[in-house]
């Protein structure tokens, strides 16, 4: 008997809960706004009905219910906009392509900042081919505003401008250091060039070719670098005056004007780049060419930077290849001279009245001497001096 | 305080730009009065056209009182940008700045590589050793750009292409 009472109580309580649950179902179907009160009440209970804030057709807790079903049983899923507004999502819904149902937060942000009417007004005011880009920019702006409730896109612009400023300062420092290194390199090569002519002159007098660079890599590199420096113009150092005007803007956080100037500069920079169809819109932007001086600076900046960008690869090119090409004519001249000397000597020897043997012997001697000379050309200075002596 | 003086002047003399635009009586507790003076009617007109007065009012109520002026100024800037460029608004400027950051980063990497090469050559000259290859520095000035407008890093493609 004592056991029957608690059992009866449990059974009664269960029946009460079931009936209340059924009543809730009916209320949700006919009086949607009542759900909020019921949710707040039920959230205090052990049952979690937070998903009840969704429109009636979304009932994931019910077995067998599919998200693809609408009120009329259509196959298309309601977009996030229609879901939020609790209305039927028709195939002609203008917001459906931009607000997928699995990203409700995206629409909530856009709705919070702009509102549905304003979004549709903006989207309908642009060309149909630009609707997608317009909507993406609206969504992005709304997300940024959600992330930074006070400053919104200002925050992003300031951070990017700061990054640009820091990067430009680094670039200036690196260019200065690079110019210093190049100067030192040039001076070192100049010293080597000043030392070279005496040796070269003496070798030329003796009919010897300068030492072949293949034997001594260091000398080879130095000679190559010397000749390359003589033949190539050094890249222009980074000009501080042509810094991008965006970084010269004074940061004034509580004013529209400084960010507006940066906005103008950003547009000007964009208009000077190699534009595609999308960028052509930037060029047509009436706001883009308000400041002619900034345009000129940007022109200079872009020109300098483009030239710098073009000149940099030339500077980075391996100098060995071109120097080898530059050295070829020099060695060819020497070789021709060598061959001329040989031929001359051979001619002189052949034109003499000596006997054949003597001629042969002298030619052989000459050949040997020439061979020795050419062999000496392959050796260093020390070897040549020994052969001469 | 300038805001209080403008607040008192607006309440006594003339309604704020918002109430003037909406053609309603400017109450003493008008939320727009401190930030939309009657001398700048275009400011509220732009904000109202793009965002709507109710949305702006909700946004102002969500931020702290000392941040409301900055919030209004940022909204005014975004509204003006959207008026001038209905397609991209202020996002266009962000995209341009991002491309600039990427371009500067590439230039820095190339210049650093050049610098390392010269530094390596000068070291070799000093020590008398043979030349050795110096690794290219390609990551020390990696400025991350987390604010990719479209979330697919299309801005990191080669410059000159229309990513937007």
TrEMBL record, chain A:
Q: Where is this region: Disordered?
A: 209-229, 344-366
Q: What is the annotated signal peptide range for this record?
A: none
Keywords from UniProt, A to Z, are: Membrane, Transmembrane, Transmembrane helix
Q: Which domain of life does the UniProt lineage start with?
A: Eukaryota
**Is Chaperone set as a keyword in this record?**
no
Q: Which Pfam families match?
A: LOB (PF03195)
Q: Does the keyword Membrane apply?
A: yes
Q: Enumerate the transmembrane spans.
A: 6-27
Q: Where is the composition biased (Basic and acidic residues)?
A: 354-366
PROSITE patterns hit by this protein: LOB (PS50891)
Low complexity: bias regions? 212-225
LOB domain residues are 77-178
Show the PANTHER family listed in the entry. Answer: LOB DOMAIN-CONTAINING PROTEIN 27 (PTHR31301:SF193), LOB DOMAIN-CONTAINING PROTEIN 4-RELATED (PTHR31301)
Family to which the UniProt record says this protein belongs: Belongs to the LOB domain-containing protein family.
| Protein name in the entry | LOB domain-containing protein
| Provenance organism | Rubus argutus
The lineage, from the top, is: Eukaryota, Viridiplantae, Streptophyta, Embryophyta, Tracheophyta
TrEMBL record, chain B:
Protein species of origin = Rubus argutus (Southern blackberry)
- Locate the region Disordered: 125-164
Q: Where is the LOB domain?
A: 14-115
Q: What's the protein called, per UniProt?
A: LOB domain-containing protein
Q: What Pfam families does the annotation carry?
A: LOB
Looking at the UniProt entry, the stretches that span the membrane are none
| Ranges of Polar residues composition bias in the record | 135-145
Q: Which InterPro entries match?
A: LOB
Q: Which family does it belong to?
A: Belongs to the LOB domain-containing protein family.
Q: Which domain of life is it from?
A: Eukaryota
Q: Which PANTHER family match?
A: LOB DOMAIN-CONTAINING PROTEIN 25, LOB DOMAIN-CONTAINING PROTEIN 4-RELATED
């Amino acid at each position: 008997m004592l056991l029957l009472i608690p059992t009866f109580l449990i059974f009664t309580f269960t029946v009460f809960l079931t009936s209340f649950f059924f009543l809730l179902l009916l209320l949700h179907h006919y009086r949607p706004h009542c759900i909020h009160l019921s949710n707040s009440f039920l959230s205090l209970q052990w049952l979690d009905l937070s998903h009840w804030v969704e429109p009636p057709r979304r009932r994931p807790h019910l077995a067998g219910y599919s998200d693809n079903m609408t009120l009329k049983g259509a196959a298309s899923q309601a977009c996030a906009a229609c879901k939020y507004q609790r209305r039927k999502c028709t195939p002609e819904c203008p917001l459906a392509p931009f607000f997928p149902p699995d990203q409700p937060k995206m629409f909530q942000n856009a709705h919070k900042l702009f509102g549905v009417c304003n979004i549709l007004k903006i989207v309908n005011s642009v060309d149909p081919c630009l609707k997608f880009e317009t909507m993406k920019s609206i969504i992005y702006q709304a997300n940024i505003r959600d992330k930074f409730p006070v400053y919104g896109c200002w925050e992003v612009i300031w951070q990017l401008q700061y990054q640009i400023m820091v990067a430009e300062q680094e670039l200036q420092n690196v260019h200065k250091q690079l110019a210093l290194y190049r100067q030192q390199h040039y001076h070192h090569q100049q010293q080597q060039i000043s030392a070279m002519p005496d040796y070269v002159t003496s070798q030329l007098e003796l009919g010897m070719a300068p030492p072949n660079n293949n034997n001594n890599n260091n000398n080879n590199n130095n000679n190559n670098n010397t000749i390359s420096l003589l033949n190539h113009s050094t890249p222009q150092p980074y000009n501080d005056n042509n810094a991008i005007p965006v970084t010269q803007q004074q940061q004034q956080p509580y004013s529209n004007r400084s960010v507006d100037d940066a906005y103008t500069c950003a547009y000007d920079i964009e208009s000077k780049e190699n534009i595609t169809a999308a960028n052509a819109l930037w060029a047509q932007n009436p706001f883009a060419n308000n400041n002619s001086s900034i345009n000129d600076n940007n022109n200079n900046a872009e020109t300098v930077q483009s030239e710098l960008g073009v000149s940099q690869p030339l500077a980075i090119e391996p100098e060995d290849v071109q120097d080898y090409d530059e050295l070829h004519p020099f060695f060819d001249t020497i070789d021709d001279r060598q061959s001329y000397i040989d031929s001359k000597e051979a001619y002189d020897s052949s034109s003499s009245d000596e006997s054949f043997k003597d001629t042969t012997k002298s030619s052989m001697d000459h050949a040997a001497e020439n061979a020795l000379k050419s062999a000496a050309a392959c050796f260093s200075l020390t070897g040549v001096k020994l052969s001469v002596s | 305080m300038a805001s209080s003086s403008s607040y008192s002047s607006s309440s006594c003399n003339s309604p704020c730009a918002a109430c003037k635009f909406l053609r309603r009586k400017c109450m003493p507790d008008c939320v727009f009065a401190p930030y939309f003076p009657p001398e700048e009617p275009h400011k509220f007109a732009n904000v109202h056209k793009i965002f709507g007065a109710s949305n702006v009012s909700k946004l102002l109520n969500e931020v702290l009182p000392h941040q409301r002026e900055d919030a209004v100024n940022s909204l005014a800037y975004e509204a003006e940008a959207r008026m001038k460029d209905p397609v991209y608004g202020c996002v266009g400027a962000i995209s341009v700045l991002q491309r600039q950051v990427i371009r500067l980063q590439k230039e820095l990497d190339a210049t650093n590589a050049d610098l390392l090469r010269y530094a390596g050559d000068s070291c070799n000259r000093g020590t008398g050793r043979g030349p050795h290859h110096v690794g290219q520095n390609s990551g020390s000035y990696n400025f991350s750009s987390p604010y990719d407008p479209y979330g697919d890093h299309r801005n990191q493609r080669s410059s000159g292409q229309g990513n937007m």
